Amino acid sequence: MTMYDKLKQTMSDRDVNAYLELVHEDAVFVFHKTGNEFSKSDWAGMVTGMMANDKFIQDSTRCVYENADILVQHAFMSYPDDSKEAVMMVAMLKDGKIIRMETGATPLN
User: Which residues are bridge partners to 89 per DSSP?
Assistant: First the structure.
């Protein structure tokens, strides 16, 4: 199963533990709105909150490109404040896990 398929499944299932198993211990996450960087433990708290909220929805997603080193994904996201964004995510992979993830987003409403 590809990293894309694994991420898509964990998001669909809202399975935080399975999602975090896909993340390298030394991972860095760069938040598109502020440029702030987060560690895996910081990100874990955010992801837990997102997946627990029924209004955080990945409306659709597609894999743009993937190999053993990188995953590029595009998704349409809906958020608890009723906003929507088109989100491009680039994940660098190491040892079969996400080592760095950056996103870019375009507001849709």
Answer: 73, 103
* Pairing relationship of beta strands 23-30 and 97-107 according to DSSP bridges: parallel
Q: Each residue's pLDDT tens digit in the chain (109 positions)? A: 899 999 999 999 999 999 999 999 999 999 877 889 999 999 999 999 999 999 999 989 999 999 999 999 999 999 999 999 999 999 999 999 999 999 999 999 8
Cβ burial 29-44 (10 Å sphere, 16+ → b, else e):
bebeeeeeebebeebb
Q: What's the DSSP call for residue 99? A: E
pTM comes to: 0.90
Q: How far apart are CA 18 and CA 7, in angstroms?
A: 9
